From TrEMBL:
InterPro entries: MoCF_Sase_C, MOCOS_middle. It comes from Chroogloeocystis siderophila 5.2 s.c.1. GO terms for molecular function: catalytic activity; molybdenum ion binding; pyridoxal phosphate binding. Pfam families: MOSC, MOSC_N. This is MOSC domain-containing protein.
Length: 264
């Protein structure tokens, strides 16, 4: 039986995620607290792993109930705790010192800061897919692949690439339900350079993208809408959630059902 095995929230875009037992849907379709904050430079540009590999060296531990983040530099035992609301200026100063240039922490309580603004819902992948993809790369574990992919929703009880049924050849949305929350699957998620690096040290994995593309094409199930792949550096599925689902919640163990297709 397909079921919800993991829910991962990333309170500050590009930093570490936290595993939660449930998550509430915002009117925008995003999960509450996911990418609620983003680090930006003086020009308002995101400071993220795509453009700054130094991000990988930041360890972050969040307490959503206390609204705090504990920051630590990889390999350094020193830790610093900041309140996300009351100590924003001190937090920005610590981050600016770490990066070596001035940064600010922006907040968006309504939509967060999703990578795909057209499909701002949680990204979906299966546990079996993560296991399969990790097997393509010696010394890359399931947990390491999970950290690289950074999906919000992980489905277990299904085979590898199960989530590839959540988009269609025509571009129509594929409707599915997690517990009592209705989702629309839209497209396979385009990956970036972040996937090619060790999530904790930023060390590039040799020939990662080339190997990934070859194996992704080779293992693509025959029933998948291959026309949706202009290239094969894609994994997990982007989603939307209607405003009618606002304030509903998903919970670990919720059953997952794919039930219809409708025009996107």
């Amino acid at each position: 039986m397909p079921h919800l095995a993991h829910v991962l929230i990333y309170p500050i875009k590009s930093l570490d995620g936290i595993s939660v037992s449930s998550a509430t849907v915002l009117a925008s379709g995003a999960l509450k607290h996911d990418r609620e904050f983003a680090i930006v430079d003086a020009q308002g540009r995101f400071v993220n792993g795509k453009h700054n590999a130094q991000v990988h060296l930041l360890r972050s531990h969040f307490s959503l109930s206390h609204r705090t983040v504990t920051l630590q530099i990889q390999g350094d035992p020193a830790q610093q705790i900041f309140h996300l609301d009351d100590q924003r200026q001190a937090l920005e100063a610590w981050l600016s010192d770490f990066f070596g240039f001035s940064v600010q922490l922006k907040q968006n309580l309504h939509t967060g800061f999703p990578d795909d603004t057209d499909s701002p819902g949680p990204t979906v992948i299966s546990t079996a897919t993560l296991i399969e993809v990790a097997s393509w790369f010696p010394n890359v574990s399931l947990d390491e692949m999970r950290r690289r992919i950074r999906a919000n929703i992980e489905i277990d009880g299904v085979p590898a690439f199960w989530e590839d049924q959540l988009f269609s050849a025509t571009g129509d949305a594929v409707s599915f339900r997690v517990g009592n929350v209705e989702f629309q699957g839209i497209n396979p998620c385009q990956r970036c350079v972040v996937l090619t690096r060790d999530s904790l040290t930023a060390t590039p994995y040799p020939h990662f993208q080339k190997t990934f593309i070859a194996k992704r094409q080779e293992t693509l199930p025959s029933w998948v809408a291959a026309s949706r792949f202009n290239h094969f550096f894609r994994l997990s599925v982007n989603t939307r959630i209607s405003k009618t689902q606002k304030d509903k919640s998903i919970h670990l163990g919720d059953t997952v059902e794919v039930y219809s297709r409708q025009n996107s």
